[in-house]
From TrEMBL:
It is an enzyme of class 1 (oxidoreductase). This is Putative formate dehydrogenase. InterPro entries: 2Fe-2S_ferredoxin-like_sf (IPR036010), 2Fe-2S_ferredoxin-type (IPR001041), 4Fe4S_Fe-S-bd (IPR017896), 4Fe4S_Fe_S_CS (IPR017900), Asp_de-COase-like_dom_sf (IPR009010), Formate_Dh-H_N (IPR041924), Formate_DH_asu (IPR006478), MoPterin_dinucl-bd_dom (IPR006657). Residues 170-201, 213-242 form the 4Fe-4S ferredoxin-type domain. Residues 18-96 form the 2Fe-2S ferredoxin-type domain. It comes from the Bacteria. One of its GO terms (biological process) is formate metabolic process. CDD domains: fer2, MopB_CT_Fdh-Nap-like, MopB_Formate-Dh-H. The keyword Oxidoreductase applies. Keywords: 2Fe-2S, 4Fe-4S, Iron, Iron-sulfur, Metal-binding, Oxidoreductase, Repeat. One of its GO terms (cellular component) is oxidoreductase complex. Its cofactor is [4Fe-4S] cluster; [2Fe-2S] cluster. It comes from Pseudovibrio axinellae.
Length: 956
């Protein structure tokens, strides 16, 4: 495919319904009222020269290249800042305009290095293109380059005038000598990203872009989203990859494999080498924006640690032995079949990953049901978001979020609870911050002061800094205020919800023991502040709820989700734009992994295996009988392995030893198995206990689809051939066939066709439809053949919304004299999940280790200073890491991430889990923190064991 060149219309699209007709160069053009003359011309196929305009930021009118003539008006106005008028007659070319544009361009070129032939942006430079567009052939002002000398040894006067190139950022350079001060980067940072990290300093010839309040980009507030690089019309801001590799020559549109936002990117290539990832403007989830991970952190795909050949070993104490694919698959199949023969068909199972495609995940659960003949299939999606599925299904009838991301543009009040969008979902956070700058109010419910609470140019109206584990009490207290003060929407409830169940809920929630005053001591949230937040949510206009793992990863995760749905139904905030209950999925395909039937009790589409009518289509298609008994979840598999009845597992793309709670128990379970098959990119921590390693493929090396947090099914398209020889879906098919199956898929589109044929919500989904529309949101049925952006529009999907009581039940994990602090965990912007991908990129420059955030008061009591080694201990285990003394956390609360295996944070988390789904309670662990001299004995032992387990025999 050739390089995809997207049209830049120069100014933003206007959505006015009133149309205006005008003439441009004699052609009739009809556009929405408020459209700029520049955009109107571009929509008519007439390109007006420009340098300071792009359709992702507001018009600025500084470059003066886009001048036009308008009949009946004096002068030559800038087309980017001039709006169309009915009957207007515009001329984009005349002798006068040509002369003016050439003169302006001469001034730019006179102060710009003319090293075009050796410049990294040669052929991809808007300044170069516009010089040609205006017909500039001569420069009268005699540029000699002295303004831009930045070599060592130059005079102090010259160096003071032009700073040297800033290469501090790992991914892009800043060369002030090539800056034309168009301000595009500054405006992109402000308007698109919302970080305000850049400014223009100096005046006249001395003016230049600079990182605000910092000497360089790396130390600044810059979050490396790439928005500034994307809009720069010269080589002032340039990807280092382009400098090193060269200009790309072809591209493929695909979907990011990091968080649940599901950003669309153009993977731009030179031959078989990836040059850069460019956010795709037509991407429905990201609209041309990106974050540091999606934009720059793809280097792991070519990292030296990748395992490209299958490996086996008889015992985990043995070194790995590289073998052929045939030998590895036969070894795995014989082991698994032998275990079933000895221990029974229930003795083996599978684990799927939220990082894999829908098609791959579908095949893995099919492997369990159609080849292993059991329902022992589970997924990391259950480990993080299964309470979402349960809670929303019970109350609203669907196991997914209600809105698309664009809905945020219509929200007046936003409740963010248990989520940190700026770190975990940065592109959506940019949309959220923009809406806040436009006037939307925000309520943040989080034990930690996340950036949305207060950062430059945005500030939450309320921060309810609750004690970890008390979500249900806080949410129910908000509902108490809404009901007791008569703030609920009775008309909506009578029309769309079950009135009898509502009456029962009112009786429950009106009880004074649910009031903010009654729960203040429990939650740590001041009663009046909680009341004020509840009133704002109920009375502030369109109110939207966005939540994350800080809601679901609790012993009452499902109850908390039910409580949030209750809030939305109480106030009529379901079924239209700007409202809803929306989970922010942590990984790229959490939604898809759930949709595809990866749970042991559900087939694709969230349909229980106990129903014969659900099993029947699969039994007919697959030619096997499917058990009506739910299989084992991951913790059940591990328990059974310790007991001796569960013996073998196939794990695709998941590292349960690092990501799952109570690491020692996970290790004991894996050690008790006789055949652990790890299918992944790297020798991860789980592979320490593996007998077979099957090399995986990155998202760049395969076709398929991901489903993001807004139910958007987006294309994953092969950019390069799989380095290991096979895409992941092919490996699963090979294993199934060696075990006696007869699968004959030749492309993932055939797998999607099978999904569509058997899953009602995917009924009309095809690769052709996805390619045509760019993406599609399920349900995609005959009633909605192009998908459904917003759910519950014509009524609650289950028929009538169901109010359910949300009694607060304290977790069994309690702080006390031995473990007086509460640990909660989360993520950081530059790292992702267990860090297997991001740790193998330059992102480690920002976050090279996990640290423990601790409040200054708690640190002082323990004699801890910033940067000290501290021991973090719970009743499950202990680990050591460095302290970060900060008031971002409250007294009595500590916080850390889980991105680095050196820390192994989950060695301290416990076995407690959600009552309905077994989702682990990562967010509440009673701990003690004390000074340490370095890694614990357990960490040292683990590192030695890990190194021994990763030995690979030299090839003969």
């Amino acid at each position: 495919m050739p390089l995809i060149k997207e049209i830049d219309y120069g100014t933003r699209k206007i959505n006015s319904k009133k149309m205006v007709t005008l003439k441009i160069d004699g052609f009739d053009v009809c556009v929405p009222e408020g459209t700029s003359v520049m955009r109107a011309a571009m929509e008519a196929g007439i390109q007006i020269p420009k340098l300071c305009s792009t359709d992702t930021v507001d018009a600025f009118g500084s470059c003066r290249l886009c001048l036009v003539e308008i009949e009946g008006k004096k002068g030559t106005p800038a087309s980017c800042t001039t709006h169309v008028e009915e009957g207007m007659q515009v001329h984009t070319q005349s002798d006068q305009l040509k002369g003016l544009r050439r003169g302006v361009m001469e001034l730019y070129i006179s102060d710009h290095p003319l090293d075009c032939l050796t410049c990294a942006a040669n052929g991809d430079c808007e300044l170069q293109d516009m010089a040609g567009a205006v017909g500039l052939r001569d420069v009268r002002y005699g540029y000699d380059g002295t303004n831009h000398v930045n070599q060592r040894g130059a005079s102090d006067e010259l160096n003071a005038r032009w700073a040297p190139k800033d290469e501090s950022n790992p991914y892009f350079t800043y060369d002030p000598s090539k800056c034309i001060v168009c301000s595009l980067c500054v405006r992109a940072c402000e308007e698109v990203q919302g970080t305000f990290a850049l400014t223009i300093e100096g005046r006249g010839f001395d003016s230049r872009v600079a990182a605000s309040m910092s000497e360089d980009f790396f130390e600044s507030e810059c979050v490396s989203c790439g928005a500034c690089v994307e809009v720069c019309p010269t080589a002032t801001l340039q990807e280092k990859s382009v400098i090193e590799i060269g200009t790309p020559e072809h591209s493929v549109v695909t979907t990011c494999a990091y968080c649940g936002v599901g950003c669309a990117f153009k993977a731009e290539m030179r031959g078989a080498e990836l040059v850069r990832m460019v956010p795709y403007k037509d991407g429905k989830a990201n609209h041309g924006h990106s974050c540091v991970k999606g934009r720059f952190s793809y280097g792991y795909a070519a990292h030296k640690d990748r395992i490209l050949n299958p490996m086996v070993r008889e015992n985990v104490e043995d070194p790995w032995r590289e073998v052929s694919w045939d030998e590895a698959l036969s070894f795995a199949a014989n082991r698994l079949q032998g275990l079933q023969k000895t221990y029974g068909k229930e003795s083996i199972g599978v684990i799927t990953s939220s990082r894999c495609t829908n098609e791959e995940t579908y095949l893995v659960q099919k492997l369990a049901r159609a080849v292993f003949h059991n329902n022992n299939t589970d997924t990391c999606a259950r480990v993080c978001h299964s309470p979402t599925g349960y809670g929303l299904r019970e109350t609203l009838g669907t196991s997914a979020g209600t809105q698309d991301f664009d809905s945020i543009e219509h929200a007046d009040v936003v409740l963010v609870i248990g989520a940190n969008p700026t770190d975990a979902h940065p592109v959506f956070a940019s949309f959220l911050k923009r809406r806040m700058r436009e006037g939307a109010k925000m309520i943040v419910v989080d034990p930690r002061r996340i950036d949305l609470v207060k950062s430059p140019y945005v500030e939450a109206t309320h921060h309810l800094a609750l004690r970890p584990g008390t979500n249900v009490a806080v949410v129910t207290a908000m509902a108490h205020v809404i009901v007791s003060e008569g703030l609920f929407d009775e008309t909506y409830i009578r029309e769309r919800c079950d009135w009898d169940e509502f009456q029962d809920y009112v009786e429950f929630v009106s009880d004074p023991k649910q009031s903010p005053e009654a729960v203040e001591a429990l939650t740590g949230v001041l009663a009046e502040q909680l009341r004020s937040a509840a009133r704002l949510y109920a009375c502030g206009g369109n109110a939207a709820i966005y939540y994350g793992l800080g809601v679901t990863e609790h012993s009452q995760g499902s109850t908390a989700v039910i409580g949030l749905a209750n809030l939305a139904m109480l106030t009529g905030n379901i079924g239209k734009q700007g409202v809803g209950v929306n989970p922010l999925r942590g990984q790229n395909n959490v939604q898809g992994a759930c949709d595809m039937g990866s749970f042991p009790h559900q087939l694709p589409g969230y349909r229980h295996v106990k129903f014969a009518e659900v099993r029947e289509p699969y039994e007919k298609l697959w030619g096997v009988a499917i058990s009506d008994e739910p299989g084992l979840r991951i913790p059940n598999m591990l328990d059974a392995a310790v007991e001796g009845s569960f013996k073998g597992i196939y794990i695709q793309g998941e590292d349960i030893l690092q990501s799952d709670p109570d690491t020692k128990h996970v290790a004991a379970g894996l050690a008790g198995m006789e055949c652990v098959i790890v299918h992944d990119l790297f020798l991860n921590e789980t592979a320490n206990y593996a007998h077979v390693f099957l090399p995986g493929s990155t998202f760049l090396e395969k076709d398929g689809t991901f489903t993001n947090a807004e139910r958007r099914i987006s294309p994953v398209r092969k950019v390069m051939m799989p380095r290991s020889g096979y895409a992941d879906w092919e490996v699963t098919q090979l294993l199934a066939n060696v075990m006696g199956a007869d699968w004959n898929y030749t492309h993932p589109s055939q797998i999607m066709a099978e999904i569509a044929a058997t899953t009602p919500s995917f009924a009309n989904v095809t690769y052709e439809l996805i390619d045509k529309l760019g993406s599609v949101q399920w349900p995609c049925t005959d009633a909605a053949p192009e998908g459904t952006p917003v759910l519950h529009v014509d009524g609650i999907v289950r028929g009538k919304g169901r109010f359910i009581r949300t009694d607060y039940v304290a977790t069994d994990e309690k702080s006390g004299p031995r473990f007086p602090l509460l640990l909660t965990t989360g993520r950081i912007l530059t790292q992702y999940n267990v860090g297997a991908q991001t740790r193998r990129t330059d992102n480690v420059a920002w976050h090279e280790e996990d640290v423990l955030e601790i409040h200054p008061h708690d640190a002082e009591l323990r004699g801890i200073k910033d940067g000290d080694w501290v021991k973090l201990a719970s009743r499950s285990g202990e680990t050591s890491l460095r302290a970060d003394v900060t008031d971002r956390v409250s007294t009595g609360v500590v916080y850390t991430t889980f991105h680095h295996p050196d820390t192994h944070t989950n060695v301290v988390t416990t076995e407690y889990s959600d009552w309905a789904t077994n989702c682990p309670e990562y967010k509440v662990t009673a701990v003690q923190v004390s000074l340490s001299n370095g890694p614990t004995k357990w960490q040292e032992h683990y590192q030695k064991q890990s190194a021994r387990s990763r030995r690979i025999e030299a090839a003969e």
